[in-house]
């Protein structure tokens, strides 16, 4: 069940991992996925150490990694903080993300990599995303988490299906950069119903076997975000 996965991730008690810094990386990413961390927010090592009950050494290591991924910045005066993103920065990231993601879709179609079971999987993923919309007992941050993790899983499927792992790595980092900016106003993420409909249009286009229709459906999906970020 979706909410079970949120429960496990929300506290990042994944101590079976040997590398504690991975827990911290997941912790920060999870806070972004729930909408709790946004552009410009500070990360305090002592607070994180107390909350996660681990020493500050792996926290520093994780913060360095997140800095390298372009999710955090560091300055002697402010310490570590979530990357500050203005409107022009957001538009620039979209201008990089959209062509890259279109390239992965093109590779998939040119190599005929999509199978019927892949599309069935995407349908199930899309249905899973909208389930919390019907449950009034679920907290808003949990709904945001499900929306974002499902959306990322949907797009990540295409990134990885293409076999272009360099593009996939770049796209994942850019996905988080966009999220931290859009977390300033969660309405820019769109509603579950809207994203469900947009994803469904992409799946239906894929089922036709037409790259042109699929790229058009994907562009419409991105255009909805581009229109929304004008609020920021």
From TrEMBL:
PROSITE patterns for the chain: HTH_GNTR (PS50949)
Alphabetized UniProt keyword annotations: DNA-binding, Transcription, Transcription regulation
Gene Ontology MF terms: DNA binding; DNA-binding transcription factor activity
Gene3D superfamilies: GntR ligand-binding domain-like, Winged helix-like DNA-binding domain superfamily/Winged helix DNA-binding domain
InterPro entries xref list: GntR_C, TF_FadR/GntR_C, Tscrpt_reg_HTH_GntR, WH-like_DNA-bd_sf, WH_DNA-bd_sf
Highest taxon, organism lineage: Bacteria
HTH gntR-type domain mapped to chain residues: 18-85
SMART domains registered for this protein in UniProt: HTH_GNTR (SM00345)
Protein name, per record: DNA-binding GntR family transcriptional regulator
Taxonomic source organism: [Clostridium] celerecrescens 18A
């Amino acid at each position: 069940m979706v909410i079970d996965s949120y429960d496990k991730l929300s506290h990042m008690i994944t101590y079976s991992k040997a590398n504690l810094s991975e827990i911290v990386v997941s912790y920060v990413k999870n806070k972004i996925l729930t909408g709790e961390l946004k552009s410009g927010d500070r990360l305090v090592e002592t607070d994180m150490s107390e909350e996660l009950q681990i020493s500050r050494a792996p926290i520093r290591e994780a913060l360095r990694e997140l800095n390298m991924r372009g999710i955090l910045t560091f300055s002697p005066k402010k310490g570590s903080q979530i990357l500050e993103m203005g409107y022009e920065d957001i538009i620039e990231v979209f201008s990089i993300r959209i062509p890259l993601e279109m390239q992965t879709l093109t590779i998939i179609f040119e190599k005929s990599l999509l199978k019927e079971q892949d599309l069935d999987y995407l349908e199930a993923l899309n249905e899973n995303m909208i389930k919390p919309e019907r449950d009034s007992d679920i907290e808003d941050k949990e709904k945001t988490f499900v929306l974002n993790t499902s959306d990322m899983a949907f797009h990540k499927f295409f990134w990885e299906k293409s076999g272009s792992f360099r593009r996939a790595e770049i796209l994942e980092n850019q996905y988080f950069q966009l999220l931290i900016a859009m977390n300033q106003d969660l309405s820019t993420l769109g509603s579950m119903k809207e994203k469900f409909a947009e994803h469904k249009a992409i799946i239906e286009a894929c089922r036709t076997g037409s790259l042109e229709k699929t790229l058009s459906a994907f562009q419409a999906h991105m255009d909805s975000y581009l229109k929304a970020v004008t609020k920021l």
